[in-house]
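yo

u said u wanted the structure for the complex thing, so here. seqs first:
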Amino acid sequence: MHLAYPAVLAALLFCTGLYGVLARRNAILVLMSVELMLNAVNLNLVAFDVWLRDTLHAGQALALFTIAIAAAEIGIGLAIVLAVYRNRGSSDVDRLRDTAETDAAEALPDDEYGTEDQATAAAGKAKKAEATA
Amino acid sequence: MTLAATAAHSGFLSPTGVEIAFVLVGIATLGAALVTVTTKQLVHAALWLVVALGGLAVEYLLLTAEFIAWVQVLIYVGSVVVLLLFGLMLTKAPIGRSPDADSGNRWAALAVAAASAGALVWVVVDAFRTTWIDLDGPARGSTEATGSFLFRHWVLPFEALSVLLLAALVGAIVLSRKRGKEQS
Amino acid sequence: MTTTTLAVLVPLLPFLGAAAGLLLGPPVARHRPETGLRALLFAPGFVRPLAVLPTLGAAVLAAVVAARQGGGRPIDAATQLTPTGSVPIDLALHLDGFAVLVAVLVGLVASCVQIYSTAYLRDDPRYPSYAALVSLFTSAMLLVVYSGDLMVLLVGWEIMGICSYFLVGHYWETPEARAASLKAFLVTKLGDVPFLIGLFALAADTGTFRITGILGAVANGGLDHPTLIALLLLAGVAGKSAQFPLHTWLPDAMAGPTPVSALIHAATMVAAGIYFVARLLPVFAESGAALVVLAVMAAITMIGSGLAALAQDDIKRVLAYSTIGQLGYMAGALAVGDRGAAVFHLLSHGAFKAVLFLAAGVVIHAAGTNSLAAMSRMGGLTKRIPDAYWTMTVALLALAAIPPFAGFFSKEAVLVAAEHTALGERHIAPSAAGWTVLVAGLLAAVLTAAYATRLWLLAFRGRGAEAPDHGRQPVAMTAVLWILAVPTIAFGLTVGAITDWFDGHALTPTVTTAVLSTGVGLVGGLVTYGAWRHTSALAARTSVGTVVAHPDAEPALIEAQAMTAHTAAYGADGDAPDPADPGRLLLGPLHHHAAAGFHLDALYTALFVRPVRAAASLVRFLDREVVDTYVRGSGAVARGLGAAVRRAQTGNVQTYLSALLAGSLVLAIAAVVFANVNAGS
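structre next:
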């Protein structure tokens, strides 16, 4: 089989995932795009392993490891997304702007999200209180 | 690849059956992936991701890596996507079309992605246009072969990985515990 | 102890007193409970002994040194601290007859001033620092007097300059004192710059800073540029000794406390310039041109200051101008090459001018004003302050050179020297210098007698309301007047006995000049008396705004108030619109100009102050508008760039990631392209 086929497919899948990571708003969709990128890498690993006929099977072993690490990553990532969602009432990536350079960086989180949802505002306040405690 | 091996295979214009199958499945996989990153329905994105990951499993099979193909189906389709769906549900993701699924960054993202796709495809094609994979002979990734190399050469990284998974498990639990309960 | 050791102790004692006073002195002792050593030293009873005793000790030691030296051969002692390269600088003593006598005068006047100050500034919170500065000043003057090395002399010279700045500015709350102290400092420094260059030129010509070495080199004809050096040094002398045209700081310096005026501006600091020329007279004598310049300078100073003194209203400014005039006599004596006469007049003038200033302080305290116009409308002042009245009368007679007081003999010595030079009997100086000094001296004698008489008549023969009763003057203030009155009366009579100290040549008066100068002095006094008789009738009819301070305040406070009030009441430091002033009648149309010091200050303002101010405002404009524009511009550019960069910090992680990946993509493509280009080539 022509090696270019899996290599081109992997490249395109990777760029698709890249687009998703950069363009998607929902954090879970971003995680999905990350999975696509990881799988593109996996495809490359497997294809080149088959092509090179490595005696150690390094490509396939690394592909397996990548799958395991991806599983771990999706678990941690989802936990983080859930924690953020619980505190902020939103899992939109482009609204998590605490690191933005503003004149009133301190006041931004409470003002912006507090008016949206009283419950989440209370949660945010609770987190803030914990941070100061 | 020797010149003889290259000559033994035919060129682009006379593809083998495996190649045709690979390309077709690849197109389907790519299409599913594209829909995954562009659809406005969040749950549909997850489902299209199943299609893409399943297509990749078929590609692994075509590349004679059967164990990895099954692991792919088990781990990704079986658990990762299910986790993602749970995540969507827990974050009260809207069902149906949500017009703001893409952030304002999408045009920049499109430009970056298209540029990197062009660059990568150009480089890859330029580098591997005369390279063929020899799929004959015993399967490279049969379960037996995989077990043998995994527990003969890679047993130490394998065990380290298990520790990593444990740590990830603990981390996920710690992160997802509710703060209120912790305080009380 | 050897004479040298004693002589070293003389400047050292006041210096140690000053150091102790300045280091340990409490800035605001009465507001803070002191503990330990400071409490012991600066309990109210200890500040004054610390101020008075070192100076008194120095005076006694100076007298002992003078007695031991006895007018014999000069005593020289030197020690070199460290090699300094080409021209060595030694800690050297050079004790000749002039040095030891001037040191006695400095010690005596400084001790009297310190004692007087204990009463005069008795409630002043800044008294400790004041006393320490006076001690430091005395020490610096004694160093100048004894030093045998010009660099060490310069150290004392400059310390005096800075001390006079602080002391004149003692009442720094008043704008007059601030301006006067700055003016004194700047004008004397203006003279010190050429002075320093002159010292270096002198050392370059003779190869040493030692006075003995320089005099030896001069005697051997080792001086290459005598006129240049003498003129450069004369600039410094004119600044320090208040000679025309650098005299303008002295009348303004009367803004300081009266004891400071007595110390600095009568007996010590201004004498330093004269004393310096006396020491290095052979250097000046090398250049006839320099002597003529000095003679002309002295003549203008004598006559101009006499006219100005006749027009002043502030009693201390009269005395200040008279000091300038008497310094002119000394400079005249030097111009005719007779340093014995110059130093003789310096000594007697130091004594009687100290009496005059200190008595004037008592008068100002008693009258509550420093204005002669106000005093002339005040009766009974003589009854209130008999000590000041009598001592001041004696001192004024001495000033007017009436025999047998000290001023007569010393002024005679000057005039005799001038006469001898003019008639060609002395050949040190050109006869032109002699004629100049002689004529100017006689004219100035008339003026001196006139303003002395005017001062006495206006201050003590006033008619009108009774002077306010301040009670008895403190003993510390009146006693020193009598102490200083002794040399004022008797010093001239010792003229025959002290020739040993003055190079051994006689200073006795001759009949011609004695008759001439006494005659013109009497004429000046009588004319003034007549004018006063004529005008005093007016005094009763025209009233002036009198200024009377609070009767119970300390003398220094009254003086400061009087000074401020004088400007407020009359609109000028030295002038008063008093038609009853005999000086106004005598001077006629000149009065207005004389009262303003012949507008020299205005001239200097137009010539120097305005251009300097204009240049300063130009520099300010350049700095603010031109240089700062670039500074502000660079700041604004940096801020703008910062704001632009800040705009990129949106907080959106996806934006950051896009930029990051785009950047790495560009790098990757560039790497691939370059790799291909290089591979292809």
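The interface with chain A takes residues 646, 649-654, 657-658, 661 of chain C (CB under 8 Å). DSSP finds 28 helices and four strands in chain C.
cya
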